[in-house]
Amino acid sequence: MTNSNQTPHPLSPTPVAFPRWREVLRNEPYQPAQVSVYEGEIFSYLKHLKAVRQRASVKSAVAYLDGLEQRGQPTDQARAALRWFFRAAAHQAQAEVDTIAPAPPPPVQTIQVERGDLGGPPWEQRMVTTLRTRQLKWRTEEAYRGWARRFALWLGDKPVEEASGDDIRRYLEHLAVVGKVSASTQRQALNALVFLVRETMGRDLGDFSGYRPGRSDKRIPIVLSPRECQALFAQLTDVHRIMAQLMYGAGLRLMELLRLRVQDLQFEQGIVIVRQGKGGKDRVSVLPESLRLPLLEQRDRVRALFEEDRQANLPGVWLPQAVENKIPTAGIQWAWQWVFPSRQLAIDPRSGLKRRHHVQDAALQNAIRKAARAANLSLRVTPHTLRHSFATHLLANGADIRTVQELLGHADVATTMIYTHVLNRPGLAVRSPLDNF
């Protein structure tokens, strides 16, 4: 234990534990916009650590900043935020050492509740309230709040509450001209800022059309051959192999895979039920027969973990608000457990409950990226590549395009048609003049 007369170096290379950093940061005499930016940068760093399974330390922070620089991303804000993080962590640790008291008696086993993430400055708190009243997904909330923070920083001294449609138009042009973002990224920013100003602040935006759109590139999806898929799976191990094979075998999106519940795998019918997919729609896809045994074994492992959680009196898994209202105890029922649960508990940012969530998306992304390198695949492979390959291979084997559309959950068949461009190679019936030599 550190001697109370010693002051830890603010940039100590040893691992740092600072669970109350948000609370401490919000009590600092900073402008709300700066607090918001620091929160975003520190959260990104901690999320990176979870993905690479490292602990917070100066060494990991330096590596993280080096990675940002290598990708051409700005680091000034991140560097300032992490400098504050480690210095504040050192001071917090010293304060705790100076106030050591006799150990309290063992607590009665109760459900642990911590402070939920309710936002920083008042405008963000209002936005959080509106987002959760509308029952939007956490991923949507994260994205919208991220854009709102960047918009607040861009506004400078102008209060967010006074933002207008013209401010949004100029910011969107800034993203296209300076940030060089894609059209889809620009649309996401537009949706977030319209929600912030019109839905949260109740301000009339007026006409702010005419902004310069971001670049719009049409890309043919990357597709692996069946042999390349087999080579990729061979380099994956344990649960990551099962997850990747199920993504390919059922044509699932990454988050659709991670959000699967035990009741969604219906072995007797041979189907996978995707609930609340893209656009909030449910659909049914095929459950590969070859995965029956591996998935049953995975279900047995989940059952053992579920029993341990119940004995520990942990809160139930997260539930959609409508389900929680109708069936309050569903979170501790077997049918609602995650098929691919995380090995570690995590704080629910909305409720503050410490509960078991599903596997993080970055874990599978990293595993597939490493497996692709190990298999010597020359393509850029991501989890979504498996969904592209599923659709293309079905069409190549003679499946009807409407059937593929339903399995993928596309609202418009035109979206599914993109996979026919992969099959119909230009000039397929034409002989190259080079082959005449």
Write the SSE topology.
Elements: H1 21-26, H2 32-52, H3 58-70, H4 76-98, H5 122-133, H6 138-155, H7 165-177, H8 183-200, H9 226-234, H10 238-250, H11 254-258, E1 265-266, E2 271-274, E3 283-286, H12 292-311, H13 321-326, E4 341-347, E5 354-358, H14 361-374, H15 383-396, H16 401-408, H17 413-423
Structure description:
With 437 residues, the chain is mainly α. The model is unreliable at 1-12 and 96-114 (pLDDT under 50). The protein is globular and about 65 Å long. Helix 2 crosses helix 6 (138-155). 51% of the residues lie in helices and 5% in strands.
Oligomeric category: single chain
Which CATH class of the largest domain is shown? Mainly Alpha
* Dominant shape: globular
Mean pLDDT: 83
**Annotated CATH architecture of the largest domain:** Orthogonal Bundle
Q: How many separate domains? A: 3
CATH topology of the largest domain: hpI Integrase, Chain A
Give the class from helix and strand content and strand pairing: mainly alpha
The CATH superfamily of the largest domain bears the name Intergrase catalytic core
What is the string of helix and strand elements? HHHHHHHHHHHEEEHHEEHHHH
Largest sheet: 3 strands, antiparallel
Low-confidence stretches: 1-12, 96-114
Number of strands: 5
- Tell me what portion of residues adopts beta-strand conformation: 5-15%
Number of helices: 17
Computed CA radius of gyration, to the nearest angstrom = 25 Å
Distance between the termini: 79 Å
Binned, the helix content reads 40-55%
Sheet with most strands: strand arrangement: 1-2-3
